[in-house]
Write a structure and sequence with these properties.
GO terms for molecular function: carbohydrate derivative binding; isomerase activity. 56% of the residues lie in helices and 13% in strands. The protein is of the alpha/beta class.
């Protein structure tokens, strides 16, 4: 798949998927760089979220569709093991699930931070 020419991939209907997969390592490197550049601002934002929760644990929902949902599925176990689970609970819910029936996933009086992943 990764050695095929663009024309062959187009005939197979695999050109877009192959391109998306090929760019992943570079995109992850860019993401790490962005995180480091914005680390202080992100930490301040999370402190503000905690303050607004007034002592309640904040629910952090990672959402996306398809491979974007997979990002949340991958991050959640790490954060449950290494994140601040006193202040935050972590879960991954597909965007299509939330859009189809938000009342099943979003709780009115529960502090919630929604993190959406998309291309």
């Amino acid at each position: 798949m990764f050695t095929a020419e663009k024309e062959e991939l187009e005939q197979l209907g695999a050109e877009i998927t192959t391109r998306e997969i090929r760019q992943q390592p570079e995109l992850w490197q860019e993401t790490v760089t962005l995180y480091h550049e914005n680390q202080t601002a992100l930490e301040n934002f999370l402190k503000e979220v905690q303050a607004k929760a007034q002592g309640k644990r904040t629910r952090v929902i990672f959402t996306g569709a398809g491979t974007s949902q997979y990002v949340g599925d991958t991050v959640v176990p790490y954060l449950r093991a290494h994140g601040d689970t006193q202040a935050f609970s972590f879960e991954s819910i597909g965007t299509t699930d939330i859009v189809a029936k938000p009342e099943d996933y979003l709780i009115k009086d529960e502090p919630t931070l929604l993190v959406s992943f998309a291309r």
